[in-house]
Amino acid sequence: MTRDSVTHNSMTNSSMTNDSKTRTGDPVAVLQGVLGETRCSGDAATRAMYAVDGCRPQAVAWPRTAEEVGAVLAAANAHGWAVIPWGSGSALAEGDVPTRYDVALMTTDLGELLDEDADNLTVTVAAGMRAAELNRRLRDARLHLPLTLGEGQGTIGGALMADRPLPKRLLHGDLRDLLLGLRVALPDGSLVRYGRKVIKNVAGYDMNKLFLGSRGMLGVVVEATLRVTTLPDQEAWLVAGYASIRGAAQGAAALYGSALLPACLHILLGDAVVAFQGMPGADLPEGRALLVVGFEGRGVTVRRQLADANRLLLAADASAVAELETLPAALAAALDDPRHAAPHPVAALRLSVAPTAVAESVARAVGTLVLPNMSVGVAADYSAGVVRLVLSGEDDDMWERLGRRLAELRRGLADHGGLAMVSAAPTAFKALAPAWGELGGEGRLMQRIKQQFDPLDMLVPGRYVPAYRPQS
User: Fold this and answer.
1) Do the beta carbons of residue 215 and residue 95 sit within 8 Å?
2) Which of 61, 72, 149, 291 has its CA 20 to 30 A from that of 50?
3) Is the CB of residue 127 less than 8 Å from the CB of residue 107?
4) For the chain, give me the number of helices (H) and strands (E)?
């Protein structure tokens, strides 16, 4: 770890408390003095655009450099303001209702490609760069960062903070396998670097992993160094139809345990299937569940694996198997986020289970959660054991019943080592069902770590771990 800026530490007020009366200063006036008048707004319409679960900030700030991010955090630390960092906003629905919210800190203007090292397959990017834009810039060098299947609009920093599984994790691993280094603005405004631009790092604590998935609780990522991959010579897809989720999971298990090397194994069910069967330009097979399998690599290898996988899936009771040269954009977007295929999305959940428990967990979740006049769409990454469910409906009087059913589902999953997180829902539902459920041992550990990094509880307070009394 290296500390490359401590110029704002003198602004920290260690006697700040969590009481809203201790907040001082006008965030708009102070931050316009820090960033310039055009880089901070208190306009009512602008503030409404950056509301989180019905809570509006007093100010929205757009820093352009890592140093300016540090300056915003230092000012917030000195005045007792609560800060929520923003990238594209695609993951801001996750988490409980914030206990305080004064400043929306936008990272989208930190969009530079700082270093591209094709020889060592690494890039260093500012956190606000969108993954799709990065891949467009890398295409001429035939490099690629495999964060999404579709043209996702999420930022690099947001992806690191959420730490979602890579869609082609069977080939490329997880984000922790790609992350080499970070530059982070800590709550007191200081800037630190962790890691370095090499594949093999020095021994010791890997602080990168601590920030990965921390959702802005410990600091704001302003820069990342990542390992990238070369673009494959060929990519191809198989879509197999099955009569049930259990059949699709058995097909995925057959491929998972075979000598073949698929890049990914995804299962769609419910609304996520209805939206794409009969889609123009894609002759998808019939079935209540679809298994989507991707392959990439050298052309001859891909063609051989396609043929072998086709035979294996038919032997595993697939009703039919379709071969696609490219994945339709709408289908790729739904695999990245099934809300894209939902007719009237009202709530979304994410289950984390063992791969062998995917089918049973989906059946349990659908049977437990789906109420009359509701439908459900499911997208599951079989190899990661991650299941995303989107509930659709137009019944405003269902949240109390749904909250009770979610508690029942969580108890059932916990008995088998699984968990369920609310990834998007109205505030009425969040008031009844905490996004993360009961705070277990890992949650209490994360709360203690947050207290060490953020003693004033100024970053996303109450969103991901319960609010705590700041240190005096």
Assistant:
1) yes
2) 149
3) yes
4) 16, 20
How far is 269 from 387, CA to CA, in rounded Å?
11
Burial 13-37 (b: 16+ CB within 10 A, else e): eeebebeeeebeeebbebbbebbee
Query: Which residues, in sequence order, are bridge partners of residue 332?
Result: none
Same fold, 234-335 and 339-430: yes
Q: Using alpha carbons, select from 154, 153, 7, 75 the residue that is nearest to residue 61.
A: 75
Fold of 339-430: Alpha-Beta Plaits (3.30.70)
In angstroms, rounded to a whole number, what is the distance separating the alpha carbons of residues 101 and 95? 14
Q: How is the chain split into domains, by residue range?
A: 2-19+26-108, 113-230, 234-335, 339-430
How is domain 234-335 classified at the CATH fold level? Alpha-Beta Plaits (3.30.70)
pLDDT in tens, the chain (472 residues): 555 643 333 333 333 334 444 788 999 999 999 999 999 999 999 999 999 999 999 999 999 999 999 999 999 999 999 999 999 988 888 999 999 999 999 999 999 999 999 999 999 999 999 999 999 999 999 999 999 887 777 899 999 999 988 999 999 999 999 999 999 999 999 999 998 665 554 444 578 989 999 999 999 999 999 999 999 999 999 999 999 999 999 999 999 999 999 999 999 999 988 877 766 666 789 899 999 999 999 999 999 999 999 999 999 999 999 999 988 888 888 888 888 888 888 899 999 999 999 999 999 999 999 888 889 999 999 999 999 999 998 766 778 888 889 999 999 999 888 999 999 998 888 888 888 887 777 778 888 999 999 999 999 999 988 777 776 5
E strand or H helix that includes residue 299: helix 299-315
* Cα gap 449→452, rounded to integer Å: 5
Q: Which of 192, 179, 196 is nearest to 218 (CA)?
A: 192
